[in-house]
Structures are given as structure tokens and as C-alpha cells.
Design goal:
6-stranded mixed beta sheet, FMN adenylyltransferase activity, ATP-binding, elongated, 512 residues, alpha/beta, nucleotide-binding
């Protein structure tokens, strides 16, 4: 009863709405299943703590409505929903302590399972008539992709209904509830932990770190002070595995710098979206700029393609490139128009739905103001479970990263320059972008014919397989340009000299 009273008397209208919706989902589940047929998965984390108190609120409100007891005695103050706790040796001691203390405080009927999740569920459901399990899953959690408030268990798992009352809650909503209701939560959250996994993959969130004046001691602010809930998992340790063979030689400013002598290569593809480009009405000027920027950080561009303003076309290109390249950059087709289908196409490429994002919507509201109404709220929908917002103080709206796909909103060179700089800056702290030795180049011009140069140039290519060597002309009557691209200037000089030595002195001149 105290939970219901605290929420209804607070001034947070958003929390009241989220609370009302969650209570409705729980009541609906309890109308479909008896108390003996439901269970609650509790892991000691903030989300399951919220769910525990929502379940308690519904149960005791139900008892009050039925007038079973207005004055609940100690003997009757037992929470009857079966509670499941998967205890592991990798859990924080604080999590275990909080879980058992909570169970004692609220008289939880707790089943402690020391098997893996799937085996434990199979054993539990075999021994008990459980048909539905309440879970503290929220959109943005890795396990939330494709789930609804009522979702059957996945194929291959024991059959039960997953009930997700707080699926649409944000990080901010969770902490608003815990603080408004003044309920106990695990002490780790007051030590800077924002998302708690095992002792092997969880550290305090660096975004909450505060240091003393001489930087000799680290302290952390509590989790509820994290300004952007989208970054709650920044405290999960990233097990970075370089996709290349070379060894990481150093770390500078949070960016992993690849060994300059490594022969490995990281690749990116670039997708421009726009029927107007394909009609020839507009010239794409961003692709070449983006190529140069990628080369400046040592990345090779494997593909630059233009596709239609069509969800299936975008999805097809993204799907084909996201698994073959280390990163995909896509631009064009982002906005409120009917032809702006890029974000939806990315979602389809990953097989996820579009879902509203509270933080992104707030940024759009500040940018658009009162115009952000009606259908334009669809702009706040992002690919569910995979969208990460890359914030930067110089950007009014954060960039969107979906796994290894970066969605850019730039429409001209200056905008792209700004977004690129902010992108590099935003990825410094988490190691999501590997900086390698930049490409260097040298260009020679000659009045010799293509036929005269062709055979000697082919031999140079075989002699220097680590370099890109290409020829082109600005016009058929203009000079032939031979360009050498690579990461070792010494090798480029050697290749250009070898070519010059095959002809008369002065046959080639260096140009930019």
C-alpha cells in the first residue's frame, strides 16, 4: 500500500503513467494465471527490485480490495508469488547479501537455483505448475530484442510465458521509482555501478568518477546521478578482440593504436541513401569526403554505394555489408519525411523492430520544440535493443550507432566535418574505434600513353603487393596520373622510383 501511495502522491507524471501501465500488465497476468502458476525472477539488481515492489503493490492492493484483511498481521504478511534466485559463484557478495536480506524483509518464498539459467528453469518447471514468469526486462537490455509485455519463451527453452511489466521503462524511470518509494536497493549502486553483471565483467561507471585534486584517489557518485541512462552499460567491461592479426602496440587517449608495421586492415563500407542522387538531381559530395576521413585513420573503404529511399533496399545493403566490413557508415534519408527510411531500414537489416527512445525524443523536442507532435514522434523511434546514442556537447542531437553501423545526419561538408570529429571524440573512451596507421600517398603525372605504361606498371604492382597502385586521367587528353597508396612511405618511395627507372629521366613528375 505504501508503494501505491508514494507514487500517486509524487509530482512525477511520467512515473505515474509508467507505474499505472506496469500495474495493469501485472493485474492482467494474475487474471490469466493463478498465484500458484506464476513466479518472479529476482536477481538483486535495480530492475528486479522495482518489479518486486510493483508485484507487492498489486498483491496487497488486491487483498485490500477483496477486504480479506485491512489490518494484515505478521502471519498473513507473506508474499505468495514464488521467487526464483539463480545463485552463482560469479555474483558480487553485495548482490547475494541484498537478495537474502530482501527475501527475509518481505517474506519471499524463494527458490535458490545453483544451475545455469536454462537447466534451472527446466528443473523448476518440471517440479512446479509454473506457466508464467515475471521478468525485470527493459527495452535496451540485450535479452529484450523482439519481446513484448507478454512473450512466450524462445524455441528450445521450457515453455512458459515471459511477463515484462517494465519493458517500456527507462533507466530514469527505474531510479525515479526507487527514490520516490524510498525502498532499499543494492549498495553497489551507491558506489558508481550502473549495470551489474558478474564480478568478471562489471566495474563502476567511469562517467560517475570523481577525483581529488591530485588525482590520487577515485570515488564514484551514485548510479541515480548518471545524466544519460543510455550509458548505463558503460560499466560493463568490454572484452575487446582486435579483428586483425597485428598486436595492439599502445593505447593513446583511450584509442587503440594498431602496430604501424602490421599488414592487417580494417575495412568500412559507405552507403548513401537518396533517390535524388540516382535521378541525377543531386550530386553526392559526402562519399569522397568520408573516404578521405577513413583513410586518415588507416581504414580501407571496401564499397561506396548509393541506394534508393526504400526500406528493403536500405536493409539489403546494410545486411550485406555489416557482416563483411568492420564498420558501415550510412547517411541520407534521416528525418520525418515519408522518404526518410534509413533508420527503419537499419532495424530491418538486424531483424529488430522500431521502438520509442525517451532520451532521443527529448533531444528532438529541444531541437524542434512544439513542432515535435503527432506523427513526428516517429522520429524518436530507434532500432530496438541495438541503438546506442553517441552524445557530444557540440551536437544538438546525438549520432546513432547500431552495433557496427553508424548513422550520420550530415547533408554537406561542414556538417560532416563536425559529426566526424564528434564521432571520433565520442568513441575515445570505450575503444569501439581502432585507429591504425593512416594511409599516405604519392602521385606521379606523365604524358606517356596508357599502352607505354601498362606493362611496366603491372610489374611494379607485383613487386609491391602491399601498395595500392592505380592510374586515371582527368580527361582523355590530359596527363596520366599514377597514384601510390599505402601505409609505409618508404615502400611508396621505392615503388615510385622503380617505375621512374624504367623510363627516360623526366618522364614522370610528382604532383598532388
Amino acid at each position: 500500500m505504501e508503494i501505491d501511495k508514494a507514487v500517486k502522491e509524487c509530482d512525477d507524471s511520467r512515473l505515474k503513467t509508467k507505474y499505472t501501465n506496469a500495474i495493469y500488465v501485472i493485474k492482467r497476468a494474475l487474471a490469466l494465471y493463478s498465484i500458484q502458476e506464476v513466479a518472479f525472477s529476482f536477481n538483486g539488481g535495480k530492475d528486479s527490485t522495482v518489479l518486486l515492489h510493483l508485484l507487492r503493490a498489486v498483491y496487497f492492493l488486491h487483498k485490500a480490495e477483496e477486504r480479506i484483511s485491512q489490518d494484515v498481521s505478521d502471519g498473513e504478511n507473506i508474499f505468495p508469488i514464488r521467487t526464483i534466485y539463480f545463485e552463482t559463484t560469479n555474483a558480487f557478495p553485495e548482490i547475494n547479501s541484498f537478495t537474502y536480506e530482501t527475501a527475509a524483509s518481505y517474506n519471499l518464498q524463494m527458490d535458490i537455483i545453483r544451475l545455469d539459467f536454462k537447466s534451472g528453469l527446466e528443473a523448476l518447471l518440471k517440479a512446479n505448475p509454473i506457466r508464467a514468469i515475471f521478468l525485470g526486462v527493459r527495452i535496451g537490455d540485450p535479452t529484450a530484442v523482439g519481446q513484448e509485455q507478454f512473450s512466450p519463451s524462445s524455441p528450445g527453452w521450457p515453455p512458459f510465458m515471459r511477463v515484462n511489466p517494465i519493458l517500456d521503462w527507462s533507466y530514469r524511470d527505474v531510479w525515479a521509482f526507487l527514490l520516490v518509494c524510498k525502498v532499499q536497493y543494492c549498495s553497489l549502486y551507491d558506489q558508481g555501478y550502473t549495470s551489474i553483471g558478474s564480478i568478471h565483467d562489471t566495474v563502476p561507471n567511469a562517467l560517475l568518477c570523481i577525483r581529488n585534486r591530485n588525482n590520487s584517489e577515485e570515488k564514484f557518485r551514485p548510479a541515480y546521478l548518471l545524466p544519460d541512462g543510455r550509458l548505463e552499460r558503460a560499466g560493463r567491461v568490454k572484452k575487446y578482440t582486435s579483428p586483425v592479426c597485428g598486436q595492439l602496440s599502445s593505447v593513446s587517449n583511450g584509442l587503440k593504436i594498431e602496430d604501424l608495421n602490421s599488414n592487417s586492415m580494417l575495412t568500412a563500407s559507405i552507403i548513401a541513401v537518396g533517390d535524388e542522387i540516382l535521378f541525377g538531381s543531386v550530386e553526392d559530395k559526402l562519399g569522397s569526403v568520408l573516404c578521405r576521413k577513413l583513410h586518415s585513420i588507416g581504414w580501407a573503404v571496401s564499397l561506396l554505394v548509393v541506394t534508393r529511399n526504400d526500406i528493403d533496399s536500405v536493409a539489403e545493403e546494410v545486411e550485406s555489408r555489416k557482416s563483411t566490413d568492420d564498420m558501415v557508415f550510412i547517411y541520407g534519408g534521416v528525418g520525418p519525411l515519408h522518404s526518410d527510411v534509413t533508420v527503419a531500414g537499419v532495424a530491418k537489416a538486424f531483424g529488430v523492430r522500431m521502438a520509442p527512445d525517451e532520451v532521443f525524443e527529448e533531444h528532438l523536442r529541444h531541437l524542434i520544440g512544439e513542432k515535435c507532435t503527432g506523427d513526428k514522434n516517429e522520429m524518436s523511434q530507434l532500432p530496438e535493443g541495438i541503438a546506442e546514442l553517441l552524445h557530444h556537447e557540440q551536437l544538438p542531437v546525438p549520432l546513432i550507432k547500431c552495433c557496427n553501423v553508424i548513422i550520420l545526419t550530415a547533408t554537406n561538408g561542414p556538417e560532416l566535418d563536425l559529426q566526424w570529429d564528434c564521432l571520433i571524440d565520442s568513441l575515445k573512451s570505450n575503444g569501439d574505434l581502432v585507429l591504425m596507421a593512416p594511409f599516405v600517398s604519392k602521385c606521379l603525372a606523365t604524358t606517356l600513353s596508357d599502352v607505354e605504361v601498362a606493362e611496366p606498371l603491372s610489374k611494379i604492382c607485383l613487386q609491391f603487393p602491399d601498395l595500392y597502385i592505380g592510374g586515371y586521367r582527368g580527361s582523355r587528353k590530359g596527363p596520366l596520373m599514377i597514384r601510390f597508396e599505402g601505409k609505409d612511405l618508404t615502400r611508396i618511395e621505392a615503388a615510385s622510383q622503380s617505375l621512374c627507372q624504367k623510363f627516360q629521366p623526366g618522364a614522370f613528375s610528382e604532383t598532388k
